Amino acid sequence: MMGALSHLKVLDLSRILAGPWASQILGDLGAEVIKVENPEGGDDTRHWGPPYMPDEQGRDTDESAYFMCANRNKRSIRVDMRTAQGQARLRKLATDCDVVIENFKVGGAARYGLDYASLAAINPGIVYCSITGFGQTGPLASRPGYDFLVQAMGGLMSVTGAADGEPGAGPQKVGVALTDIMTGLYAVIGIQAALAEREKSGLGQHVDLALLDVTAATLANQATNYLVGGLNPTRLGNAHPNIVPYQSFVARDGHLIVAVGNDGQFRRYCDVIGAPELAEDTRFLTNRDRVKNRDALAPLLQAKMLERDKDEWIALLEAANVPAGPINTVAEVFAEPQIQARGMQVNVPHPQNSELQLVGNPIKLSRTPVAYRSPPPMLGEHDGDYQ
Length: 387
Hints:
GO terms for molecular function: CoA-transferase activity. By secondary structure, this protein is an alpha/beta fold. It has two domains: 9-218 and 340-385, Rossmann fold, CATH 3.40.50; 246-329, 2-Layer Sandwich (formyl-coa transferase, domain 3), CATH 3.30.1540.10. The chain is 35% helix and 15% strand. It is built from 15 helices and 13 strands. It has helices at 18-28, 65-68, 84-94, 116-122, 147-153, 178-201, 211-217, 220-229, 263-272, 277-280, 287-292, 294-305, 310-319, 330-335, 337-341, and strands at 9-12, 32-37, 52-54, 60-64, 75-78, 99-102, 127-132, 206-210, 246-251, 254-259, 324-326, 345-347, 357-359. The protein has a six-stranded parallel sheet. A three-stranded antiparallel sheet has the order 9-10-11, covered by helices on one side. Helix 1 (18-28) crosses helix 6 (178-201) and helix 6 (178-201) crosses helix 7. The chain is elongated, with a radius of gyration of 25 Å.
């Protein structure tokens, strides 16, 4: 079955994570993705290990797990874009492509004649996506941007981590490069919007994505708490700024999450933990009250949660239709029957390891499903296919 985007050809000049994440999604959806790599080592993430993929005998190959996470369903070619020959080859490829993705510093692509203006002159229908730290305009446009740096500058770290006064207090980065990942997702949205508009106008356009913009946008309710309510958010650990109780608790044998979303759930929660009087306490009657008095409520709930093991609590709360769950390790996530049932662990055989396991794509389409057509390519594996 043909993929939803099997009519598209993508020239991927990007590296590391945000750009490759976007092009992998397009590839999963059926697009032909040509990954252009530096002949001297390829994408930087090829060397970001250990761990490296083992071969059939269990020996490390040169293929890093990091590279594997963002590069399946692509074809790798080596091009030295510093040379006139390499630049001419890429311009020729671009004449037959629908999309170009790049993450050069601002002005970097123009040095090679591979910027939007140059490619649109030979292919007016090209949709050209630039991914940078700070965008194509503004006082910081020329600065390089990295996920960790932008998590800090974009406010994400200011709302992540234990609250002041608690053990381990201080700003924390998210445990994955979330700014890169979210920028890749927004890039796909922008690219598809430009492609949809091209059906009417026949013209492509420049899609300008900045890690800082995306980080600010994905602060979501926290940003709007400030813009609308004048509240400058602070770190709350695993608690929620707008809903109480919506946090982690320590049970007798470990941690669990309780996510009470409304007043009815709070009453049922209080019944389950054997403290129905808390639901009648005027300090805690409504969510507005509970947010205002969270410092009084949380210790009372925590004391009750120490009376049972976490699995007991989860079973009791689920039976009462109160959202609760474990805090899984990554290993436990992929052992979870629901994850298995949803196809979130997939086998994508590689020439060096027929049992290569990768994370599946979460998009489920009924007629044109995601397909795992090829593993992450070896460097220059498809050099002969694109001359």
